[in-house]
């Protein structure tokens, strides 16, 4: 029996004419939908995080420091940025971060691109304080580490514009240090670094699995969005693509969980029993200790100021 | 004769839906077994049971004399079992989760606590042997399907398993890579490795397996025997939906004959020619 004998007649109808060439590119150009774009951004960011195919691996100042030492130092400096009460210290930390980025061949543009959203967000959060008309007044909780003091008082507009600037700078410093870490360190090295810093193996394994599952979820979501797009004639507007996506969310989650099950099995099949065993990596050398010393110095400075 | 696996009336259900119904067979050391069956007949489920990833709802499975069940497959037996048995999933994306191909191949041996120096040597040798050294630093997700499959196979071979379980090994491979796989598997056979593969690819089965079992659409075992005998039993294969009656045109002649999914014409397959 020929395979198409049972097909309905509409299915066998051949189109006589090809697509008219002049019809291409006639529609109005729209910006791509919000859902589309944010999904693309998230997936490409996470995938780049996993793969680190942005060409910063292996070369540069930070990359030459052993990952656990790198992680430790950047954390210490970020902590310093989070607790210092002195704008000169904060300014120097930001300057040092920028220099580290240049020395590690991370473009400043790349760094700013990753830091800007948080900075803008922080600024918007602080706008009431900036305008100074909500709660003009003195600080009400004169205790605790200076970090909390600054956050509290600035939100209450005790100091107005300078404190907003200080708060946003703090966010910029911490976020750009985090971005610097993700740009110079592969996740594999990061997990190894955590292990070497004696973070409990169960915690590291959990983090790794979370990371892995997130990746699966994103890949599936991306595929689902593409599949949706390939079956959409014309351009879906933001509202309808958001609706479509929301209606698929549960399904995507379910599918991701199934796939994650399989991944778990694939890991178990290759001997994974919950503790994540990896290469130990090279021993720490002079420049690693120098770096740790520098970061601790910055940290202690921030305690004093 | 040394038995690697012995399955006795193994059944499995996913919730209410049955996936395997009282399947019994055994696999001897160094043998290679093809599990044939149509889509959804339970091949993948059977392989997962044979890899100790899921456990039978009823019936028993033994590996080298040890019962594989939830309580038994722990500690020393588990470690030994993971070292001896490798499983190539049908979907390479599921199997590859490390940042680079190198890490991927190192994963298994590291979990089994081989020394790091040994692991590195092993990985380099394996990359060489399989001709994929160029991919070493690539993140697996950027590879093509066929390359992923190669890496997935390599990642399993890196623990040097005695038993290789493969779910649809030729899936997604171009003809040249299929030949590569054929040759690899044939070589593994000469090394006395036990090989179990689930496939719809009858020519793969014919070339590489010496035995076959067939799962039918009721999830039971429909046939079990030497590969040539199983492949000659057209009525059984038709009933299990592995080949199907098909008619089409050669020039002006319309004729009807059987087809297996991956061959252009079954009459070019030696086992169906002699009719
Ligand atoms: N995770 C699951 N949840 C529920 N049912 C499942 C699940 N996995 C498989 N099944 C069902 O179990 C039966 C056997 O599935 P299995 O994947 O073992 O088939 P298969 O022979 O490998 O098929 P294919 O050739 O398509 O890979 C099928 O009916 C399938 O629908
Ligand atoms: Mg299957």
Protein architecture, described:
The complex is a heterodimer of chains A (305) and B (275). Chain A is mainly alpha-helical. Chain A contains eleven helices and no strands. Chain A folds into two domains: 146 residues, no CATH class; 75 residues, no CATH class. Chain A is 67% helix and 0% strand. In chain A, helix 2 packs across helix 9, helix 3 packs across helix 8 and helix 4 packs parallel to helix 7. Chain B is built from eleven helices and twelve strands. Chain B is globular. In chain B, the strands form three sheets. Chain B has a six-stranded mixed beta sheet with strand order 6-7-8-3-9-10, with helices on both faces. The longest helix of chain B is centred in the middle third of the chain and has 16 residues. In chain B, helix 4 crosses helix 5 and helix 4 runs parallel beside helix 6. In chain B, a hairpin with a 2-residue loop joins strand 1 and strand 2. Chain B has one domain: 3-Layer(aba) Sandwich (Rossmann fold). Bound molecules: adenosine-5'-triphosphate and magnesium ion. Adenosine-5'-triphosphate (ATP) binds next to strand 2 and helix 1 of chain B.
Mean pLDDT of chain B: 84
Terminal-residue CA separation of chain A? 86 Å
Alpha carbon gap, first and last residue of chain B = 35 Å
Helix content of chain A: 55-70%
Number of domains in the coordinates of chain B?
1
State the helix count of chain B.
11
Q: Order of strands side by side in the largest beta sheet of chain B?
A: 6-7-8-3-9-10
By CATH, the superfamily of chain B comes out as P-loop containing nucleotide triphosphate hydrolases
Structural Rg of chain A: 26 Å
Helical content band of chain B:
25-40%
Biggest interface pair, counts: A-B, 28 and 38 residues
**Low-confidence runs of at least 5 consecutive residues of chain A:** 52-56, 133-158
Number of domains of chain A: 2
Task: Please summarize the sheet with the most strands of chain A.
Answer: none
Please give the oligomerization state of what you see: heterodimer
